[in-house]
């Protein structure tokens, strides 16, 4: 496997991380996962803009526009012959003697490499089972930070329950998102999802679904909903770069709708692929 480390393409064996890299010691870094369909990056600009947002919010001095990251990622995908998959990119604050405050001299470490991914078609057809978990994460979930322990622990609980995802809630009145997905409910024909604020990651797929809803004439609302509203929704679905649109048919012991993927979720999933090969989409 060929890896992009800082500005160089190297073999995996050469992509060594220093023990005092702040990403390793503090989770002091940010990341992105960008999907590739049929050899083409999907919504690359949006991912790079969000990466810049995460860098700016964490005070990591790295200007994506200054470099040639987009071209380097294209090159990386080509060298690894990725047709259907994804590229993972992380940028940490860099290497410095271990001490909490931001070091003044550290140079950010960038690492990018391909991760194997395939479409979760079977589960999209049957609908997924998920569980509910309390959201115990920090209050800057808008930053795509390497600190994922809260997300990792929630996903592990889901795995142990043989569920696809854990849907998180701050309190019974406030459902936020999944451990690695955004959450949507459909009620009376309207798609509703959590507002893009500090409680959630503003998913690129979430934004794409907003765009698709507009195209299809489906009302898209950003509003907080409760656990009760979630369980009594006509449809529930999740969205992320890797799960695309994932209908949810069961939450803990509750069946959603008639236990089959709902019609609006299916419509959005069908529409998803009418546009993935269009270079012009901006969401
Ligand atoms: N929320 C969280 C917590 C996530 O980790 C992800 C996946 N990156 C998402 C939402 C979905 O974001 P995206 O559509 O950009 O993959």
TrEMBL record:
Belongs to the class-IV pyridoxal-phosphate-dependent aminotransferase family. The gene is dat. The keyword Repeat does not apply. Its EC number is 2.6.1.21. It comes from Halalkalibacillus sediminis. CDD domains: D-AAT_like (cd01558). GO terms for cellular component: cytosol. Pfam families: Aminotran_4. InterPro entries: Aminotrans_IV, Aminotrans_IV_CS, Aminotransferase-like, BCAT-like_C, BCAT-like_N, Class-IV_PLP-Dep_Aminotrnsfr, D_amino_transT. The lineage of its organism: Bacteria, Bacillati, Bacillota, Bacilli, Bacillales. Its cofactor is pyridoxal 5'-phosphate. This is D-alanine aminotransferase. It is an enzyme of class 2 (transferase).
């Amino acid at each position: 496997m060929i890896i992009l480390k800082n500005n160089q393409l190297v073999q995996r064996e050469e992509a060594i991380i220093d023990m005092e890299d702040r990403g390793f010691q503090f989770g002091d870094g940010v990341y992105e996962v960008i999907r590739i369909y049929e050899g083409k990056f999907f919504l690359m600009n949006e991912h790079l803009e969000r990466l810049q947002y995460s860098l700016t919010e964490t005070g990591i001095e790295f200007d994506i526009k200054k470099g040639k990251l987009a071209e380097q990622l294209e090159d990386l995908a080509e060298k690894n012959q990725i047709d259907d998959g994804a590229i993972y990119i992380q940028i940490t604050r860099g290497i410095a003697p271990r001490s909490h405050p931001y070091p003044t001299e550290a140079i950010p470490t960038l690492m990018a490499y391909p991760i194997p991914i395939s479409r979760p078609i079977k589960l999209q057809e049957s609908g997924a089972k998920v569980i509910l978990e309390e959201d115990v994460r920090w209050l800057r979930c808008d930053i795509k930070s390497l600190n994922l322990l809260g997300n990792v622990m929630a996903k592990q609980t889901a795995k142990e329950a043989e569920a696809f995802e854990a849907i998180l809630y701050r309190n019974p009145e406030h459902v936020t998102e999944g451990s690695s997905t955004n959450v949507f409910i459909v009620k009376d024909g309207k798609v509703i999802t959590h507002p893009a604020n500090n409680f959630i990651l503003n998913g690129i797929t979430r934004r794409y679904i907003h765009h698709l809803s507009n195209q299809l004439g489906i009302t898209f609302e950003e509003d907080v909903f409760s656990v009760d509203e979630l369980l009594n929704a006509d449809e529930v679905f999740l969205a992320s770069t890797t799960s695309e649109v994932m209908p949810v048919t069961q939450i803990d012991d509750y069946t959603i709708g008639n236990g089959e993927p709902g019609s609006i979720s299916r419509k959005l999933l069908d529409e998803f692929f009418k546009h993935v090969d269009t270079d012009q989409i901006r969401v």
